[in-house]
């Protein structure tokens, strides 16, 4: 019996739906690609997908009138609240 050709997904081991930059679908795409990179154990691919995820979050935030600095400030407040045990 002839071998069935293996599907090609570029760097990834499965098909990942493409998202639209500036929308949640792009964040979802990049997160799925990051999960796949982690499952493969390829550190440089993890690095690339983290950078892509950062860019997708940045564009989504920009679309909603936020800057990455705004998100960083909120993350610091949240971290502080957790350290103190109060939110």
Helix-strand blueprint:
Layout: H1 24-40, H2 43-63, H3 68-84
Helix pairs in contact: 1-2
Explained architecture:
This protein is mostly helical. The protein has one domain. It is built from 3 helices and no strands. Helix 1 packs antiparallel against helix 2. The termini are far apart.
Bin the strand percentage.
Answer: under 5%
Q: What is the overall pLDDT average?
A: 94
Task: Indicate the low-confidence ranges by residue numbers.
Answer: none
User: What's the main sheet like?
Assistant: none
Q: Which percent range fits the helix content?
A: 55-70%
The helix tally amounts to 3
Which structural class should the secondary elements be placed in?
A: mainly alpha
Keywords:
mainly alpha; 0% strand
Offer a quick outline of the entry.
The chain is an all-alpha fold. It has three helices and no strands.
């Amino acid at each position: 019996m002839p071998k069935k050709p293996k599907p090609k997904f570029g760097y990834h081991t499965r098909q990942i739906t493409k998202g639209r930059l500036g929308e949640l679908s792009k964040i979802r795409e990049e997160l799925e690609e990051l999960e796949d990179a982690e499952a493969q154990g390829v550190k440089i691919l993890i690095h690339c997908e983290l950078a892509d995820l950062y860019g997708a979050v940045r564009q989504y935030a920009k679309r909603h009138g936020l800057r990455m600095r705004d998100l960083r400030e909120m993350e610091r407040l949240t971290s502080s609240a957790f350290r103190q045990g109060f939110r």
